Amino acid sequence: MTADWFYLFPPLLEGTLLKRYKRFFADIELETGETVVAHCPNTGPMTGVCHIGGRVLVSYNPDPKRKLAYTWELAEVRDTVPTWAGVNTALPNRVVKSLLEARQIPELGDYTTIRPEVRYGGDGKSRIDFVIAGPDAEPVTYIEVKNTTWAKGTLALFPDTVTTRGQKHLKELTALIPQAQAVMLYFINRGDCTTFAPGDVADPTYGLLLRQAVAQGVKVLPCRFEVTPAGLRYLGLAPLRLN
């Protein structure tokens, strides 16, 4: 992998989305004319990304241990200019881990340790995506990652539906202040967005909680990515719009 690519896709196959159903399945007609059932690794509504008749890209892995050999990876969106948006919600954490290891997010400061999937929260049942710490184990920084594909023009928005789980994460992050540093990292999984804002229309409670979290010291990092059939490239931070 070259220095500026943080994820490279395997060879992808182009097709047309015929139907998405039961959240996890998508019927896709490949360029060969064959219709396949692909795993849809995004259980959300995929607002603005899931277009019947739209262009999609899938990966193929014939491992006999897999229930489905095809995975829906990218969808073409045409909000401004045609661009690809990431569908596979398993990728953001892998890419963020690579960014952390490469020390490519200077806003996080200096750290020597990276721990994924750490239990935290009042009930101890939640898991934070990453915890980073300096050489003396302090200051400790908790990082929650949210995949973001909904957009209005060049404005990326999260969430695209009511998310009680997301609301809970914001409350738990805010509760960490001032004993630790807390970061909400929005993974903007499409390259045509230049600004980020909470999706107040979809979940006004989440928007309120995000503003309260920022006021109390939670840091928001809207991370932009170029998404192509080759892979994902980090573009830096998008401005945060809360007003």
3D architecture notes:
The chain is mainly beta. 14% of the residues lie in helices and 42% in strands. It has three helices and 16 strands. The chain has helices at 91-101, 164-175, 204-215, and strands at 5-8, 13-21, 25-30, 35-39, 55-60, 70-77, 83-86, 113-120, 126-133, 141-148, 150-152, 155-158, 181-188, 195-198, 219-227, 231-237. The strands form three sheets. Strands 1-16-15-13-10-9-8 form a seven-stranded mixed β-sheet. It has a five-stranded mixed β-barrel with strand order 2-3-4-6-5. β8 and β9 form a beta hairpin. α2 (164-175) packs parallel to α3 (204-215). The chain is globular. The termini are far apart.
In short, what is this structure?
This protein has 243 residues and is mainly β. It has helices at residues 91-101, 164-175, 204-215, and strands spanning 5-8, 13-21, 25-30, 35-39, 55-60, 70-77, 83-86, 113-120, 126-133, 141-148, 150-152, 155-158, 181-188, 195-198, 219-227, 231-237. The longest helix has 12 residues, at 164-175.
